[in-house]
């Protein structure tokens, strides 16, 4: 027999999974809370026991998609340089975006243009990069003088710029653009702070 907390967690996970599937099928703007609860087979009011609004579940789904990057922050291979570690992180970040597709990217753009109260997606992504940079400093691959805040903000700005560009024009290829950035620009940016 399952406990109440297990049922609560199962319902929450079902809401997240079904919403993610509906977003893939129809796009965020084209689904309602009623659509989500109907597809889950639960009462509409139950949704609000878990999420304050539709945008809140979208934010959680977004964070869940990016949670796979956590291992790249905590398990840095000893034989990788700081440039290689950051490149791998940035390329994986963009792979998650491009795998989801341009329609999902456009939904995400509409969602992040009007930021939610902190912590919002920007805060979430910048915090992850700050943590990674601090890990590289702790591993003595980057100097303690590395401007962690500014570098994290710059990298998030670049990533978001690629996503926005891709959402507006099929001329932008974010995956190849991030690889080029990591090969040509990232090493130059990191050079003054590299220790190993």
Provide a count of the helices. Answer: 10
Query: Helix-strand pattern, N to C?
Result: HHHHHHHHHH
Supply Rg. Answer: 19 Å
Query: What is the name of the CATH topology of the largest domain?
Result: Tetracycline Repressor, domain 2
From the N-terminal CA to the C-terminal CA, the straight-line distance is 54 Å
Q: Which CATH first-tier class of the largest domain would you pick?
A: Mainly Alpha
How much of the sequence is in beta strands? under 5%
Q: What does the largest sheet look like? A: none
Number of strands: 0
Report the average pLDDT across residues: 89
Question: Quaternary arrangement of the chains shown?
Answer: single chain
- Given the helix and strand composition, which structural class is it? mainly alpha
What is the CATH architecture assignment of the largest domain? Orthogonal Bundle
Write up what this structure looks like.
The protein folds into two domains: 4-51, Homeodomain-like (Arc Repressor Mutant, subunit A), CATH 1.10.10; 61-193, Tetracycline Repressor, domain 2. With 196 residues, it is an all-alpha fold. The mean pLDDT is 89. Helix content is 73%, strand content 0%. It has ten helices and no strands.
SSE order and pairing:
Elements: H1 4-26, H2 33-40, H3 44-50, H4 54-66, H5 70-74, H6 82-100, H7 102-113, H8 121-138, H9 148-168, H10 174-190
Helix pairs in contact: 1-2, 1-4, 6-10, 7-9, 8-9
List keywords for this structure.
73% helix; mainly alpha; 196 residues; Tetracycline Repressor, domain 2; Arc Repressor Mutant, subunit A; 2 domains
């Amino acid at each position: 027999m399952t406990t109440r907390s297990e049922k609560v967690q199962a319902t929450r996970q079902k809401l997240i999974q079904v919403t993610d599937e509906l977003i893939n099928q129809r796009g965020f703007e084209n689904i309602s809370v009623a659509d989500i609860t109907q597809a889950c087979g639960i009462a509409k009011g139950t949704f609000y026991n878990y999420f304050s609004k539709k945008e809140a579940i979208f934010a959680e789904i977004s964070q869940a998609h990016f949670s796979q990057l956590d291992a790249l922050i905590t398990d840095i291979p000893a034989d990788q340089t700081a440039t290689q570690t950051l490149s791998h992180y940035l390329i994986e970040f963009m792979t998650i975006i491009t795998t989801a597709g341009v329609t999902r990217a456009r939904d995400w753009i509409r969602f992040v243009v009007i930021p939610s109260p902190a912590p919002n997606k920007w805060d979430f992504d910048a915090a992850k990069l700050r943590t990674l940079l601090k890990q590289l400093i702790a591993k003595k691959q980057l100097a303690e003088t590395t401007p962690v805040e500014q570098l994290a903000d710059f990298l998030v700005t670049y990533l978001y710029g690629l996503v926005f560009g891709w959402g507006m024009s099929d001329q932008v290829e974010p995956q190849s653009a991030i690889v080029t950035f990591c090969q040509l620009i990232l090493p130059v940016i990191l050079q003054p702070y590299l220790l190993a």
